[in-house]
């Protein structure tokens, strides 16, 4: 194994503490015939444990060794894989090196562990290559990642040679992508100790779809039209969803990401205190073969906050043009995002009912950077009943309509008033009885 791993060129830049590199070190010592049996067994078990932990996180099954190697291939962001993601595999000298590496991976797929198992009297490799995972709810792992890794792993098992291996992997890069962006729908932003921007995948993102949001058909239509144009490479606008709390603003954006994930849409959630990282974030994702929504939830500013000026320049108005693969979607309870006071109107002049207040213009200009603004308002009493009724039918709640509405009224009076969120909470209450 150590000789195979040493022959990797494009895919050989692995951390020394990675499972593959640690196992290669184990086999190097084993083949030297100068080793301590107990020490070698302990080192192997540590790496087997790491493979099992990875398998648990992503519900790998059948052959964990193949799943692990496939996961490595998917996650490796190198010039070759990133080029394949963007334009596919083109004829070029680099393909010679890539096929050589894939030939190594094919041999790793077929590696015979019986020699070291017999010598050390262990059977752990046999167990992980013929593995039956314990069934568990999908919410306990990232179903999306699991499905893609296992699917590619099964295809690579059937590859006849390195050429077929090459075609299978590069097709995956082009169709799905490379690294965490290829496997996951949504991310949060973190800052490393060295100031480098890091992305943390959101593994338990709500699987909501737009049909789950009862009502708001006009609002959903506007959001879908803008997003559809975006993923198709047409001109699209930044979007501001504003209005009352509990009306489905955040749910709509999550549903949009779920709906257009297959078209290459990804979401990165960013918080107000991270706005200073926006420029760095954009520079890291502008050349990737995905469409990114930078998502800002519950966006608003107090009058003494000035971060909105930086955000305004990043959205539109700075020296650098916003890349075509990035849009900003924000939700807010405020139509104009920034708190407005009567003091802002002290310098207002009236001339044919037109305001000339510099302070007000400054505060309103941020909201104007969003080309599409969509209002989400509290439903009427009848609309509230319609939402409750549809949710009750969807959840197979058997209750007379009159009683259902009466209980819904009682619930909303003690839980924040009429809204779609309160309706859903009421249904959850009934389901828990």
From TrEMBL:
Give the highest taxon in the source lineage.
Bacteria
Instruction: Note the Pfam families from the entry.
Output: DUF815 (PF05673)
Put simply, this protein is called: Uncharacterized protein
Q: Supply the source organism for this entry.
A: Butyrivibrio hungatei
């Amino acid at each position: 194994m150590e000789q195979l791993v040493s022959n990797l060129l494009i895919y050989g830049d692995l951390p020394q503490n990675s499972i593959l590199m640690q196992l290669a070190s184990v086999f190097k010592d084993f083949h030297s015939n100068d080793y301590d049996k107990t020490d070698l067994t302990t080192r192997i078990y540590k790496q087997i444990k790491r493979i099992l932990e990875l398998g648990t996180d992503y519900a790998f099954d059948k052959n964990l060794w193949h799943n692990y190697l496939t996961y490595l291939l998917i996650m490796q962001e190198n010039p070759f894989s990133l080029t394949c993601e963007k334009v596919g595999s083109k004829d070029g000298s680099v393909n010679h090196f890539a096929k050589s590496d894939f030939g190594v991976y094919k041999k790793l797929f077929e590696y015979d562990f019986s020699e070291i198992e017999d010598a050390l009297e262990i059977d752990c490799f046999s167990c992980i290559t013929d593995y039956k995972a314990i069934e568990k709810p999908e919410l306990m792992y990232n179903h999306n990642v699991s499905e893609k890794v296992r699917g590619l792993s099964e295809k690579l098992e059937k590859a006849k040679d390195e050429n077929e291996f090459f075609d299978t992997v590069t097709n995956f890069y082009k169709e799905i992508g490379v690294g965490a962006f290829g496997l996951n729908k949504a991310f949060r932003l973190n800052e490393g100790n060295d100031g480098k921007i890091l992305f943390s995948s959101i593994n338990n993102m709500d699987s909501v779809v737009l049909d789950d949001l009862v009502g708001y058909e006009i609002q959903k239509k506007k959001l879908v039209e803008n997003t559809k144009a975006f993923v198709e490479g047409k001109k699209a606008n930044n979007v501001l969803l504003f209005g009352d709390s509990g009306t489905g603003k955040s749910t709509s954006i999550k549903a949009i990401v779920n709906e257009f994930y297959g078209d290459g849409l990804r979401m990165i959630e960013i918080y107000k205190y991270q706005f200073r990282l926006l420029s760095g974030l954009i520079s890291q994702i502008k050349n990737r073969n995905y469409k990114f929504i930078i998502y800002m939830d519950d966006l608003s500013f107090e009058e003494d906050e000035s971060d909105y000026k930086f955000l305004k320049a990043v959205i539109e108005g700075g020296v650098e043009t916003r890349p075509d693969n990035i849009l900003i979607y924000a939700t807010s309870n405020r139509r104009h995002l920034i708190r407005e006071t009567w003091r802002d109107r002290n310098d207002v002049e009236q001339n044919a009912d037109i305001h000339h207040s510099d302070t007000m213009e400054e505060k309103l200009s941020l909201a104007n950077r969003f080309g599409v603004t969509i209002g989400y308002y509290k439903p009427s009493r009848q609309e509230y009943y319609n939402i409750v009724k549809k949710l009750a039918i969807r959840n197979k709640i058997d209750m007379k309509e009159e009683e259902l509405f009466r209980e819904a009224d009682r619930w909303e009076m003690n839980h924040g008033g009429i809204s779609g969120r309160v309706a859903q909470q009421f249904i959850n209450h009934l389901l828990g009885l």
